[in-house]
Each structure stands twice: as structure tokens, then as C-alpha cells.
Amino acid sequence: MVAPKEQPRTVAQAAVELNLSAGTIRAWITQRRIGHIRLGGAIRIPVGEIRRLLEVGYVPAEPRTGP
After folding, report:
1. 9-36 burial, b for 16+ CB within 10 Å, e for fewer?
2. I want to staple 8 with a disulfide (CB 3.0 to 4.6 A). Which of 4, 35, 44, 50 is the partner?
3. Residue 1: pLDDT band by 50, 70, 90 thresholds?
4. In angstroms, rounded to a whole number, what is the distance separating the alpha carbons of residues 58 and 45?
5. Is 0.90 topped by the overall pTM?
6. Torsion angle, CA of 46/50/53/57, rounded to 10 degrees?
7. Pairing mode, strands 37-39 and 42-44
8. d(CA 13, CA 33)
9. For residues 22 and 15, what is the distance between their CA atoms, to the nearest angstrom?
10. Is the CB of residue 22 less than 8 Å from the CB of residue 34?
11. Are 8 and 47 in contact (CB under 8 A)?
12. Span 17-40, pLDDT tens digits
């Protein structure tokens, strides 16, 4: 059994975690921009895939120079 924190997310849960619409997540699935698991008619997003998207999209702040 998978720990609850690591269980794959539904499209709606992934959308909430990424602050996106469920439609965007579904479009990304269709475009194969986000990895997913198909279980019959159900789609699940692995937690690692959500982390990957957050890491890839991260833009660090630039250090300030001067006063």
C-alpha cells in the first residue's frame, strides 16, 4: 500500500496542488506534457510528476546589487 502523501492524485487534486484548472491538466495529459497513469477510465498523476513540474517551472530570484 502506498503512503497517503505519495498516492497518485486525481486530475482535480493535481489541479489544486498546481493552482491550475482541471482543464489545463487534461490538456497537458493529451499533449503528453505531464506524465500520468491510466487505470481503465481513471487518470492519476504521480506525486513525483507534480514535483517535477514545480521544479522545472521554478525561476530563482536574482540577487540584488546596490542599495
Report:
1. bebebbbebbeeeeeebeebbeeeebeb
2. 44
3. low
4. 20
5. no
6. -170
7. antiparallel
8. 17
9. 5
10. no
11. yes
12. 999 999 999 999 999 999 999 999
